[in-house]
Amino acid sequence: MVNHPTKKIFQFKTVVLSIVLLLNLSLFAQDAALSADALAGEALFKANCTSCHAMNSKQLGPALQGVHTRRSDEWLVKWIRNNEALRASGDKDAIAIFNEYGGAAMNNFENLTEAQVGTIITYFKEWTPPAPKAVVTDGAPQEVNFYSQTTLYILLFLIVVLTILLLVLRKTKNSLKQSVSEIEDEKEEESAPSAFKTKFEYYKKRTNPTIFKMAVGSIVLGGLAAYGFYFGVTEIGVQQGYAPEQPIKYSHKLHAGELGIDCKYCHSTVDKSKQASVPSVNTCMNCHKGVQLRDKYNGEISPEIKKIYAAMDYDPDKAAGEQYGNNPKPIRWIRIHNLPDHAFFNHSMHTSAGVSCQTCHGPIQEMEVVQQYSTLQMGWCINCHRERNIDVENNPYYEKLHAKIKAEKDDKNSSYAKYFTKDGKIDIKPANNGALECSKCHY
Ligand code: HEC
Ligand code: HEC
Ligand code: HEC
Ligand code: HEC
Ligand code: HEC
Ligand code: HEC
């Protein structure tokens, strides 16, 4: 029985290609979410409308997310093609929105056919908000989302392993067939050859083909596993750039940046204890009992602020004294920074030494969604302990140390003598003060 070689190759290729295709499809599925009509509409929208409109934010014109739920399709077609005529016809909604936007006139788009405007409306209907992007901050390579990168690596790894597995299986099958026919001519000459290639051929011939293939296969798989292990040790667990979506769209950019609220107003334990702690909902209520943003949501309370009320089981519309129910559900913030249990870190030690939050956490006040700015790896801690000066002079925490160093300044035998620079200033780093000892950071 002869198995046609091209046919086999074809089957093999088909399998590999389908795997790759499936993976691609799942990776890029998001792009395929819009229908053909909506894609045409998107193109028209980008060409004609984005100078004044965005889907999810107010520009010169209103945000158009969900506009199809506010207006009928018929109204939208009329408005988009000739809003002037619609207003002239006395349409109340048209006049109201025109007045709301201070009489800023939108162009007429009579050059677009009704069908074309229809595709734009389809686009509005199918549009979904983009996934929040990781915040890009200066200096460090922050754009990479750890999870998507890891997933990609794992997928690539799987492709390679599966491909090799297929290759090995295919070859095994072939050689099993071959060996049946070769069993007859076993009596060939068997002189031990020298060159590697011939040696390889020699052992290949002498060994049972199946076992030989399996041996080669395991060597390759072993190599890959070793790489996987190395990857796991060095990469997994490092969550730099990690920025999960939180249960409430709380923004540091707004609160700590634009409103200028002090970090310690919310992270109140950061100066006193090991933990910086995330604030309880009560802290939010100090302001959000009053700040409901009803004007932004057509008289309704902001849906995000409603979540704060739900967490407190608070109903502002009830009579005073009855507003708080007895079924509060604390907000489950997703923890971002997390050292392994064997490492010890203390905030107050660092803030009292004058290290700013931003040195370690990056420009939090510019982040819409908090992301992990530093690696939090051991090397990161150690580097700073080697490089940063301790301000022993102006820090009450170091009063004793400072006095001792000063007293021994002129004593050449003092262990502190070496910490004076030529111009008599103290140059001492955490490393000189024991901050490189394993036991300081490890339980
Ligand atoms: C020159 C700026 C400008 C351009 C270009 C523009 N618009 Fe507008 N649009 C506005 C303004 C301003 C309003 C608010 C009403 C007003 O003042 O007339 C508006 C309102 C709307 C509304 C009503 C929203 C609501 O909440 O009822 C829709 C729908 C709309 N535009 C769609 C479009 C589409 C689709 C395009 C592109 C084909 C477009 N606009 C191009 C400025 C613009
Ligand atoms: C109005 C209250 C408030 C203020 C002000 C505030 N934060 Fe936060 N912070 C929070 C809340 C709530 C969370 C948890 C939700 C989140 O991660 O966005 C948080 C989370 C964090 C985290 C991540 C915690 C984790 O899970 O690892 C860091 C780091 C942080 N804040 C630093 C700061 C810094 C630095 C400032 C000042 C520039 C600041 N915060 C100001 C309320 C606040
Ligand atoms: C010191 C006052 C203050 C504190 C404390 C505060 N906020 Fe705010 N917050 C505001 C103000 C003011 C706004 C509205 C800004 C604007 O005009 O858009 C706001 C807006 C918001 C919004 C945006 C709502 C929307 O729909 O646009 C969310 C969500 C929010 N806060 C969540 C929180 C959470 C959660 C906490 C507690 C961790 C908190 N805030 C603590 C003052 C505060
Ligand atoms: C020397 C670096 C450093 C500085 C400075 C620093 N942090 Fe942190 N922060 C960390 C590390 C490391 C963690 C993770 C701690 C853990 O997992 O035990 C963390 C965790 C946090 C958390 C999560 C909750 C917690 O307590 O573990 C918050 C919130 C936070 N920091 C806020 C702040 C604020 C606000 C400041 C400034 C007042 C600040 N940090 C200054 C390194 C720092
Ligand atoms: C940006 C600089 C910086 C980073 C990053 C940093 N530290 Fe520090 N660390 C300091 C300074 C400054 C001191 C104060 C000097 C002192 O107390 O000896 C200090 C002191 C300490 C001490 C007290 C040492 C002693 O002698 O008592 C410990 C423990 C410590 N750090 C742990 C950590 C750990 C764990 C990390 C990483 C997760 C870390 N630090 C990251 C700057 C840093
Ligand atoms: C300044 C603080 C600090 C000092 C000093 C320190 N470590 Fe670490 N070490 C850490 C932190 C933080 C981690 C967690 C790193 C991570 O999660 O990637 C860690 C992780 C480790 C790990 C786990 C492997 C890894 O990379 O995750 C080992 C093992 C370790 N340290 C051994 C030591 C030994 C031995 C010493 C003394 C020579 C020492 N450490 C001194 C902070 C420190």
Considering the chains and any ligands shown, give keywords for the structure.
443 residues; mainly alpha; Cytochrome Bc1 Complex, Chain D, domain 2; 18 helices; 49% helix; flat; binds heme C
Task: Please characterize this protein's 3D structure.
This protein has 443 residues and is mainly α. Among the domains are: 34-126, Cytochrome c-like domain (Cytochrome Bc1 Complex, Chain D, domain 2); 146-234. The protein is built from 18 helices and no strands. It has helices at 5-28, 36-48, 67-70, 73-88, 92-100, 114-126, 146-182, 196-206, 209-234, 252-258, 263-266, 281-288, 303-312, 347-351, 357-361, 378-387, 399-407, 438-441. Mean pLDDT is 81; it is low at 24-32 and 133-148. The chain binds heme C (6 copies). One heme C is lined by residues 237, 339-340, 343, 377-378, 381-382, 385, 435-438, 440-442.
What's the helix and strand layout?
Elements lengths: L4 H24 L7 H13 L18 H4 L2 H16 L3 H9 L13 H13 L19 H37 L13 H11 L2 H26 L17 H7 L4 H4 L14 H8 L14 H10 L34 H5 L5 H5 L16 H10 L11 H9 L30 H4 L2
Helix pairs in contact: 1-7, 2-6, 4-5, 4-6, 7-9, 12-13
The protein binds heme C (6 copies).
The site of one heme C has 16 residues, from helix 16 and helix 18.
Globally, the shape reads: flat
Number of H/I helices: 18
Number of strands: 0
Unreliable stretches covering 5 or more consecutive residues:
24-32, 133-148
The CATH homologous superfamily of the domain at 34-126 is called Cytochrome c-like domain
**β-sheet strand percentage:** under 5%
The rounded distance between the terminal residues' Cα atoms is: 69 Å
> Are any ligands bound, and if so which?
heme C
Whole-angstrom Rg: 34 Å
Biggest sheet, in brief?
none
Q: Could you say what the CATH topology of the domain at 34-126 is called? A: Cytochrome Bc1 Complex, Chain D, domain 2
> Secondary-structure element order, as H and E?
HHHHHHHHHHHHHHHHHH
Structural class: mainly alpha
